[in-house]
Known about the structure:
Number of helices: 5
Shape: rod-shaped
Bound molecules: zinc ion
Structural class: alpha+beta
Strand content: 5-15%
Strand order of the largest sheet: 1-2
Largest sheet: 2 strands, antiparallel
Number of domains: 2
Number of strands: 4
Order of helices and strands: EEEEHHHHH
Amino acid sequence: MSNNEPPTPTKHCPDCNKDYPKNAGYFYKGGSGRKSFLRRCKPCHNIKTMAYASKRRSCKPRPSGFEKLPPEVKHQILEDLKHNKTKAEITREHGINYRLFMRWQAKGQIAEYERIEKLKSLRGNNDKFNNPHIMV
Length: 136
Ligand SMILES: [Zn+2]
């Protein structure tokens, strides 16, 4: 593969479309045993990883919310809502921040949980359908 390489090997970066000396000054090491160089030059690699990290940050919904509550609390809240308890009562009883509760409702997290619960009961509460993360 490297038959045609000049005495000072260079490596092409596909992102900025330039050739650099093939050494650790221009490329990060990677791969198994960190013996080979990564495909992109250092600046391009940094740009890519930063873009990837920020994309992950912005796409990933923070795992805070209604679904994080213990199942029995979630269930009780649904019952409370069914029995027309006020939000003030519900949040006080469960020690939940009122505004947080409002946010869960605005985001539809509680309605979504209720939907899943309904589906589960329709299916006769089979164990395999008890995963609250199941999407139907
Ligand atoms: Zn580059």
